[in-house]
Design goal:
With 238 residues, the protein is of the alpha+beta class. Helices cover 19% and strands 31% of the residues. The protein folds into 3 domains: 2-55, Roll (Structural Genomics Hypothetical 15.5 Kd Protein In mrcA-pckA Intergenic Region, Chain A); 62-125 and 215-236, 2-Layer Sandwich (Alpha-Beta Plaits); 129-209, Alpha-Beta Plaits, CATH 3.30.70. Helix 1 (4-10) crosses helix 2 (16-24). The longest helix is centred in the C-terminal third of the chain and has 10 residues, at 227-236. It is elongated, with a radius of gyration of 20 Å. The relative contact order is 0.15.
C-alpha cells in the first residue's frame, strides 16, 4: 500500500507537494470516489484518477527536446512565462521534464510520464553523465580548470569531480568555449563550478545526456526516443 500522493508523483502527474494540493482540491478519485484525505493509501488494484483521467490509462512516452533559452523547465509557471510543455500541445499524455535546465540555459532535456524512468535518471547515485558547453568570460587555461577534476566547494555546496576540455579561446574578446562533463544535477551546478575558478558563464548549453545527443534537432523541436535509446540511457545509469 502506498499513499496516494506518492502514487501520483511516481506517475509523473505532479510533485508530491502538488499532488497533496490536488487531493485537497478534490481533483483526485479512487475507484470513482473523490478523496480529500492526505493519508489515504491505495494498492495496485485501486484505480487512481486525476481530473477524471485514470493514471493507468496512459501509455508511457519518452521525448527528447531541444530547450531554447528563456523557457522554464516545468509544466506551469506562476509568472505566466513560457514552459517546456507549451511545445507539446499535440501530446495528449501528461508529460513533465526529467530534471531541469535553467531558464537561460538551452539544450537537451528529456520529458516523460514514466516516474520510475525519471527517478532512475535524476537520482545522484546512478551517475548519468551530462555534457555542457559554456561560453565563459576569460581566457581559460588548463591549470584554471584542473581543480574541477578533483571536486570543488563553492558557496557552501560541494561538487563532485568533473572532466573538462577547452574547445577554443578568443584572446581579443577575452572569452573561451569550455566543455564540462558532470554526473550530478545540482541547481546552477555548471555555472557555480566555473564561477569558482573565475570563469563566469555567459552562455550555456547541454549537448549530451548519457549516450543521447541533440543530433539535428533545432531549438524548440522535439522527437520521441526509440526503444533502443531508452534502453541505452537506462544502461548508462549505474
Amino acid at each position: 500500500m502506498e499513499r496516494v500522493q506518492k502514487v501520483i508523483a511516481q506517475a509523473g502527474i505532479a510533485s508530491r507537494r502538488k499532488a497533496e494540493q490536488l487531493i485537497l482540491d478534490g481533483r483526485v478519485a479512487i475507484n470513482g470516489q473523490v478523496i480529500r484525505e492526505l493519508g489515504t493509501k491505495v494498492s495496485k488494484k485501486d484505480e487512481v484518477a486525476v481530473d477524471g483521467v485514470p493514471i493507468s490509462s496512459e501509455q508511457y512516452v519518452y521525448f527528447m527536446f531541444y530547450k531554447p533559452r528563456g523557457v522554464i523547465s516545468a509544466v506551469t509557471d506562476d509568472k505566466k512565462r513560457k514552459v517546456v510543455t507549451d511545445y507539446f500541445s499535440d501530446v495528449s499524455e501528461r508529460i513533465y521534464p526529467v530534471g531541469r535546465l535553467d531558464y537561460d540555459t538551452s539544450g537537451l532535456l528529456l520529458l516523460t510520464n514514466d516516474g520510475d524512468f525519471a527517478q532512475r535518471l535524476t537520482h545522484p547515485k546512478h551517475e548519468v553523465e551530462k555534457k555542457y558547453v559554456a561560453k565563459v568570460k576569460g581566457v581559460a587555461l588548463p591549470q584554471d580548470l584542473k581543480p574541477l577534476t578533483r571536486g570543488i566547494r563553492y558557496k557552501g555546496e560541494k561538487y563532485a569531480p568533473a572532466r573538462f576540455d577547452i574547445l577554443s579561446t578568443d584572446h581579443q574578446a577575452k572569452t573561451s568555449i569550455v566543455q564540462l562533463t558532470i554526473h550530478e544535477g545540482k541547481n546552477h551546478q555548471v555555472k557555480h563550478m566555473l564561477e569558482a575558478v573565475k570563469l563566469p558563464v555567459q552562455k550555456l548549453k547541454r549537448e549530451q545526456y548519457g549516450p543521447l545527443t541533440l543530433g539535428n534537432l533545432r531549438p524548440g523541436e522535439f522527437r520521441e526516443l526509440s526503444k533502443k535509446e531508452i534502453n541505452a540511457i537506462l544502461e548508462s545509469s549505474k
